[in-house]
Design goal:
Blueprint: H1 20-36, H2 52-64, H3 69-81, H4 99-111, H5 119-130, H6 139-147, H7 179-194, H8 229-240, H9 242-245, H10 252-265, H11 278-290, H12 298-308, E1 311-312, E2 319-320, H13 326-339, H14 347-358, H15 391-401, H16 409-424, H17 462-474, H18 482-493
Antiparallel strand pairs: 1-2
Length: 509
Amino acid sequence: MDEDFFDQTTDVRETGASSDKLSEAIRCAQQNLLRLQNSEGYWAGELFVDSTLCSDYVLFMHWDGNVDPVLQEKCVQHIRRRQLDDGGWNIYEDGPSEINATVKAYFALKLAGHTPDSPWMREARATVLRLGGIPRMNTYAKLYLALLGQFPWKLLPTIPVELVLLPNWLFFNIYEMSSWSRAMLMPLAIINHFKPVRQLPAEKQLHELWPVGTEPSELKPGLDLSLTWKNLTVQFSAALKILDWLAWLPGRQFALKKAKAWMTERMGEGSDGLAAIFPAILNSIIALKACGTPVDDPLLQKAVRDFENLFVEDPHDFRIAPCVSPVWDTAINLIALTESGLDPKHPALTRAANWLAEKEVRIRGDWMHKNPHAEASGWAFEFNNVYYPDTDDTAMVLMAMRLVEPAKREELKELFERALPWQLSFQCKDGGWGAFDKEVTKRWLEDIPFADHNAMLDPTCSDLTGRTLELLGYIGYSRRSSVVQRALHQIKTTQEHDGSWYGRWGVNY
């Protein structure tokens, strides 16, 4: 690593783009960013997503039997504003109607009192049926219907709590799944054990969203004896159904206790809810309630507060964020301000750098099960998420920290000496970097019946690899090193025929 990497900055004033108009635009943008900085030193933007979060919350309130009419109406207005011309709801901007989002939105509106003969409900129902109806939904969406008695539990794939007991050396265990799948599945396994159902009155049910003539038997996978991973996992899942029929399961209570302990450990101090993301937090609240946790339990109350911290109280459009992003936002704003010419010694940049330094994660979280690196470091996306730092935020933070003028240069150097080896330790066999774990790439796991959310793995990808290479370039890391050469190979081999690279986040390209 170049000893003078702290001094390697880029100043747009040296690029020749010196027109008065451009300079004024840059100055105004800088002032706006400084205005938006929190007094503690961080920036936090907002992540906008689809209507399913508000839909899920309405469903949860009705399952819980504790409906806040004001919050419900705010959610309903949010859902109604996002209905498309064809009557459905999408999951990304300008995208087509999507079956899971549309059924959830319809159900939320119906639970809130919108009658099926309302014009917008008729249009939504027509779109649901055009897309195949309830049978076409994915497992996670069907599970929310099962909680409210609108899908049979017996037709959902079994998620046994015994998963938590599988040893790490086994070809399949919970650490072979992506961190976000793991955080969703463990509370779902607890819920799967109890199978809690809130019975709804007839006028609130969803009979009209089943295609005419649909029979439950049609929803069961057919018997296929061909030797493919998909068929084997489907038949194995069917065999697991025996667990649901047995009145006595040796070890079940022990597994249940271990699963709950795994979940609650990751909901406590240092975490803004389980994995600090909407689905896992909501699932953990449902799981605690399914276990009979009293409402005044401190951990349940904390989980509810963590969940409510995702509410965006916009008077014009209440909405729920999937998570928060202060670490990423602070790092990228620090880079933008310094590279656009703001003095690296500016107090705002010092506050930002100090805040980022304090957010370094120093405990060995879930990543340690696939990565034996000894010393913990790294940064997570959110305010507090100590079990799940990620390589993307870590690379961005280190790129930002190299630009500031540290008051204590030696401390910043020590931070780099911890964090850079941590980042490099996640390089996978193909030369690339995944996000949260190392070598979580077993493709056959995508054929597991409850893996139909298309996020079971944490594969290497070109944007995370590129971000790490960008960092290494800035700090003078040797181009001839095997780390860089392997990463370059991964970048070259993942370029698509049209010249683009497929990325990890958002709309991907």
